[in-house]
Design brief:
Layout lengths: L17 H7 L9 E8 L5 E2 L7 E3 L1 H13 L4 E7 L18 H12 L4 E6 L12 E4 L6 E4 H18 L3 E4 L6 H11 L6 E8 L6 H7 L19 H13 L3 E5 L5 H10 L4 E5 L1 H12 L5 H15 L3 E4 L2 H8 L1
Parallel strand pairs: 1-3, 1-4, 1-12, 4-5, 5-8, 8-9, 9-10, 10-11, 11-12
Antiparallel strand pairs: 2-3, 6-7
Helix pairs in contact: 2-3, 3-4, 4-5
The structure holds ligand PBG.
Amino acid sequence: MSRKLDLPIRPRRNRKSPAIRGLVRETVLTPSDLIYPLFLHDGADDQPIDSMPGCHRWSLEGLVREVGEAAAVGVKAVVFFPAIAESLKTPHGEECFNSDGLVPRAIRAVKEAHPEVVVITDVALDPYNSDGHDGIVEKDPKTGELRILNDQTVEVLCKQALCHAEAGADIVSPSDMMDGRIGAIREALDEAHHEEVSILSYTAKYASAYYGPFRGALDSAPKAGDKKTYQMDPANWREALREAEQDVAEGADMLMVKPAGPYLDIIRALREEVDLPMAAYQVSGEYLMIKSAAADGWIDEEKVMLESLMGIKRAGADMILTYFAKDAAKLLG
Ligand code: PBG
């Protein structure tokens, strides 16, 4: 017995063919939305990273080649994360503003080979800091408690940002979460006539366990303590809005939410409250969960990768930092 429902509204009509689905699609993901994070090291070999299958610590030559391959499939923005030799790490992380350091050399090499590609650099001390923190660490002599010194750290971050700008970075991206760093870096850049260099602020960066594989890749985990006195509490939402207001007031050009997948509500909230372009960072743990479930045959890697990125874009991100950038761009064609 078949019974016809009296239904004037049938949403399935808008899904009845690929062409109709194409017409009504609300969100479109394209390679030009993607930013490709790349690891580098000071060596001649390209080292596969155990904690992040499919990723490498690139040599300068390998890096230039990889950036070229990504650009060829439409990914025109990259961000660098250096693995710094243990012998160069110090309590104040001075290597971060060495004009002949690994990152400035990488910027120059990539800009020379691929001038059309946007080069973004991470501004924070953790790869250079012997304590593995994003800022300078002071230990209370009585209690042994660790303090991350805000204003002293910002001073070093300004030197780091300037060093990257001088090497030719298009965008500097402070990921440290110190207070007041956006304004201080803007002022330092402007004073040095780098007013064309943009600032992409890690506005709402949470103290997340999803960064584990990244810290493995760079051997940059804190030697003691955690990052909870500077990165945000995953429980908080209003606090992200306050951070965003401050970044806007201090002159940020773009904002970022990190991680992305577990924080889609934060992306949506900032999208609604702020009119600056918004980035979201699909971090190493999000990447690894997809990679490892797919490697075990439990999910379809390509489909889940694209769906995860679509979800982030739909939530309100204009651009997405993702280790899948090159692979996703190939599929998006
Ligand atoms: C450090 C930094 C981290 C990431 C990007 N920049 C790690 C951290 O804050 O401990 C994580 C990225 C990822 O997990 O993919 N300033």
